[in-house]
Design goal:
The structure is a homodimer. By secondary structure, chain A is an alpha/beta fold. Helices cover 43% and strands 16% of the residues of chain A. Chain A has 3 domains: 5-48, no CATH class; 61-157 and 288-312, Rossmann fold; 160-285, Response regulator (Rossmann fold), CATH 3.40.50.2300. Chain A has 12 helices and 12 strands. In chain A, the strands form 3 sheets. The first copy, chain A, has a 6-stranded parallel beta sheet with strand order 2-1-3-4-5-11, sandwiched between helices. The model of chain A has no long low-confidence stretch (mean pLDDT 91). Chains A, B: This is LacI family DNA-binding transcriptional regulator.
Chain lengths: 324, 324
């Protein structure tokens, strides 16, 4: 049985109000009596009931975090860094995964709101103004990572457009004259939040190649790749994520196509596992752990001091490997 | 501002008690009045305050999950599967990471208890009877995964001893006559929970090889490996995790030692990323996602029906690759 304030009051022969003042360090109380009460509370193994306290203080010290899933190392690194930073700041993490489903995401948000999280950090599948208005009405700090929701919700990320433009320019400068660009479907735009993907595509489109680029935007990108004569020009395959690039590497190896002498490959994200991959993948660094730590820092300050959270752009970098 | 029971009561011109009976489907209430109240609650956008409700019902629908970290894909797959199963069962996940620190783990447990989680699932760094007695006194269901805490705490895992014995026998049957066994330090036994590691080592020790095995139990295993003439006999390097095996593969490739013709390598875990690794790693499957789902299933039943949670052993399997 949990020890209650009443138990301590009975043991010390004082009122519950006196115990409350001693434990919470407020109001007038005789110092000796206070010491006695604190010693007794310790002796009895008293633990404050955080739930009851949350009701009083209107703060649960919990940050709700909603991401797609943890299959991609990108997200597990993000959660890892946020949990570390949150613990340092005395916050808990309430984790929910949407598996790219918009309704699931809304249910996760509602459920977290009912559980009175102090703030929300989202990699959102939903977008548009309706969604950001809906989020704002809960009146707690919200931060979006990787996928921008709207100008109303603070957003911490790399500059995806600039990063993909730099990547494409790097490919062009390496002497490739055609790019096969592989991305998840951009046609999802009307229904899903594909802000980052769209930015990347725009960045890619800003660089001219000698031969017309081929755009594969499909979950079945390997099957689409099979229909293309990839050896026709000096071709590089540029992927919007390392995971896609790894699948492409596997496909090319299976087809005995040499990388990079016959075809170049470039990824995006720079996930940790790349250190075990041959050939070393050329990619773009996405400092996801830094972004996670900044997000927690910003949101905890917003929770505690009411600070407005600023948009933030974190620097990317081309990581030179052996696949281009 | 959140809509309260009082707002609904005022709007319907009834007492708060009546609204409470309507919303919570209990006590006597005129059906028409109930319908009116429910319609008004919906119209006003009433959301039950789960925290206040938790206080009354003594249940938060939250399961606390404490693991080492999410750097190893093993744990992110575990969390992913548990979150999915928990959501299906209408539970939330409160996640904390210990980074192998015993005090951090205890603080995580205490903090979750204060937040009144309904149950706890641990990959524990702590062990021994003192710890399991301490956990038991909180009087909520507790499950340990991967690392057994004591006979008092239910434990869901593969049979680590048997799995490593099978792996070792597989190496011997492939014609190798010496094994270099790489494990995290077994000397941690007195201070840390290394139950699974110890079981694996015992399984390994049950198989006789022609030449004496070399045991490397160090975090600096690559440096230790450098001091050994690994080409002396027909040698296989058997690792207690895939991550170690991947580091060993990288080392051997750097030294231009051919795998498996000069040295064989075997891992443990069968993490998903192995599909991108060359040569395909021979390893032992550890069905971590299945274990995660079973753990949530068991603990939710224990929370709801008071069922005793049974120990469970999940079947492992040798995964034949090209590295042996």
């Amino acid at each position: 049985m949990a020890v209650t304030i009443k138990n301590i009051a009975d043991a010390c022969n004082v009122s519950r109000g006196t115990v409350d003042r001693a434990l919470n360090n407020r109001g007038k109380i005789n110092p000796e009596k206070k010491e006695l009460i604190l010693a007794k509370a310790k002796e009895l193994g008293y633990k404050p009931n955080y739930i009851a306290r949350s009701l009083k203080r209107g703060k649960t010290n919990t940050i709700g975090i909603i991401v797609f899933n943890l299959y991609n190392e990108f997200f597990s690194s993000l959660i890892n860094s946020m949990e570390e930073k949150a613990k340092e700041k005395d916050y808990h993490i309430d984790l929910a995964l949407t598996h790219y489903d918009k309704d699931t995401e809304k249910k996760c948000v509602e459920s977290m709101i009912r559980r009175q999280v102090d703030g929300l950090i989202l990699c959102s599948v939903n977008n548009k103004k309706d969604y950001s208005s809906w989020l704002q009405k809960f009146n707690i700090p919200v931060v979006s990572l990787a996928n921008k929701i709207s100008n109303k919700i603070p957003y911490i990320s790399v500059d995806d457009r600039r990063a993909m433009k730099d990547a494409t320019q790097y490919v062009a400068d390496k002497g490739y004259d055609r790019i096969i660009y592989i991305s998840p479907p951009l046609a999802y735009e009307d229904t899903h939040n594909i802000y980052a993907l769209k930015q990347r595509f725009e960045g890619f489109s800003q660089v001219n190649m000698e031969h017309e680029s081929i755009i594969i935007e499909s979950k079945d990108y390997i099957r689409e790749l099979e229909t293309i004569n990839i050896l026709e020009y000096k071709t590089a395959i540029l992927c919007t994520s390392d995971i896609y690039a790894l699948e492409v590497l596997n496909y090319l190896k299976e087809k005995k196509i040499k990388i990079p002498s016959q075809v170049g490959v470039m990824g995006f994200d720079n996930i940790n596992m790349l250190k075990y991959i041959e050939p070393h993948l050329t990619t773009v660094s996405y400092p996801i752990e830094q972004i996670g730590a900044i997000a927690i820092d910003s949101i905890s300050q917003a929770i505690e001091n009411g600070n407005k959270i600023q948009n933030m752009v974190i620097t990317h970098e081309i990581i030179i490997g052996e696949s281009l």
